[in-house]
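Predicting holo structure, 4-O-methyl-alpha-D-glucopyranuronic acid bound.
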Amino acid sequence: MTSPDLPGTHPAWLPPEALRPIGSRRTLVLGDGLLTGTVHDEAARACARYGGHVHRRTRTQPYDLVLALTTAEPLPEPLPGPAQTVLDEFRSTTGPPANTIGGEGYLAARRHGVTTVLADDPAGLLYGLFHVVRLGERAFTEERPTERHAPAMRRRMLDHWDNVDIHPVMGQVERGYAGGSIFWRDGTPRGDPARVRDYGRLLAACAVNAISVNNVNVHATEALLLTDRLGDVAAIADLLRPYGIRIHLSVSFASPVTLGRLPTADPLDEDVRTWWADVTERVYDTIPDFGGYVVKADSEGQPGPFTYGRDHADGANLLAEALEPFGGVVHWRAFVYNHRQDWRDRSTDRARAAHDHFAPLDGRFRDNVILQVKHGPIDFQAREPVSPVIAAMPATHLAVELQVTQEYTGQQRHVCYLPPMWREVLDFRPWGPDGPAVADIAGGASGNGGGLVGVSNVGDDPYWTGHPLAQANLYAFGRLAWAPWTDPAAILDEWIDLTFTPSATRETERLRRTLHTIMDDSWRTYERYTAPLGVGFMVRPGRHYGPDVDGYEYTPWGTYHFADRDGVGVDRTRATGTGFTGQYPPAWSEVYESLDRCPDELLLFFHHVPYGHVLHSGSTVIQHIYDTHFAGAEQAAEAGRRWEEVAGLVDPSLHARVTDLLAEQARCAGEWRDQINTYFFRKSGEPDTRGRRIPR
Ligand code: GCV
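Done. Tokens:
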């Protein structure tokens, strides 16, 4: 099935039928503003298709659904009775000042046979509309008490690693596995406004409210988006604005030199400050609701303040100062490490780098700097501990960065449903059970935290994400940024219901069961057949797909496993290793330091142990490696068999695409199993106690 509005494109989680319950009813939309207009248009489009009616102001008709803005006091027009009841009840239960619904939030209820959504802000009305879409028929069938919904994170952003020019090594989208960019093609704008608009709609339905439109590695052409090619950015902003999405831009720290012809980009130089101020003013003249800059500085070859003997606070504050008059923010990435280290040097530890660089700077960043921290200390591996930076900077706004694009988790050829991993990150309490969770820190004390940033997995592929089931990761990213405590299985159900509507499948419940069987545990399956016990990076260098146990072992990238004939793992203890464990607050520092207390799944991240070391599970390290690799590869193969059972229940081309990908996943998982098992058998000489075949 392709999208009716975008021929050749799958409609992802918003096929027209997802709006049938609204489209077949009578809806009243009250309020003004661009986003209220979007709400109206969504309902109107659905009604045109399914026979309902939308009224903008006329109140003489009966209504099934009222969508209204309630900010003004007194209300510009009285609400219909049931909606007024919802508002009165809400106000009577919450005294001022809490009796406002709040920015982006909404009230949803069903009273006296009318479903009502009320919001103070047009964005809230838009999110409330999609709440009703998620509920489907259930929104209209029984009375519902008033619920107030509001985002846990004010900032819910996707970073696109899209290049304008095709990069000779990284292509159109760095680490993109879904075809080309939806914004750019071979040096120019892609010229497909309908697709960009549809993307905005998909994102609004999961409440993403910001995107950056170009790669954090800013090459020569991409740098020009800030100046000569700003119009291209403004065109994207225009398309996404109706969906409540603000545009951000990745910029090069060297821009004053490369674009402004200044002799320096020193953040303390007056001319440099003036240059950024002027350029930024022009950006806001062109895009008044521009969100701000994203910067990767002094990292993997990108320019930064170190060139001038300055630190990252100096660098970030320079851009923040320029953005501040306009309400913009700078997302300054904490992904800073030495990518030219000597593998012989056992004292340098890449895991330590971000904390070493940034923790001493806490308190020095301006208020509109958001330090964007990858969720783990290394680089989006299938298993890492939570980055210690997240607990180390209480006086800094922090955003937690997740990788929706599956660079290290199967590159959208493998099913790897990531929300269970993300939930572990978001739920982690760095100070122990009584302290705040990572989600609280990202949300910020009064909602003013840096929020959640995901690296987008979208491209110009007909299914948007290459692997059709990878759409669920994108959808879930937005949902978790809104409500981080949501059960990943419940989010998957939402995605299934929105995507595989009754006309898209004959047997929703059977399909649902199969998708849960394939997807719920797929991240752990992936973990089982790849690098064991948190050690990471046994991937093919550069490409990062498929196994290559020693591929990175003697490189300058700082990603080692140190396997020898006696054991494996990285000693990051204070007692005998790199001291990385000391970067955590005591509650976790002590757990990770202790061989006895360290969780099995992170053992090799923190300790170098003999192959015979006994895990909490009772297994030895070597037997665990064998068992998990046999099990993981078998589970990958089983996923293919389960998918076969639902042939005929979904669109044949979608079924065929997933079938092919599951076959590749099973092949690749078998390769991982054999390479890892053989490697460790050869190193250790330890046989599998269960006598299974391990290639010699
Ligand atoms: C955009 C990893 C990836 C790079 C990426 C980098 C980053 O190293 O392999 O492609 O660059 O992370 O997050 O900046």
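The chain has a mean pLDDT of 96.
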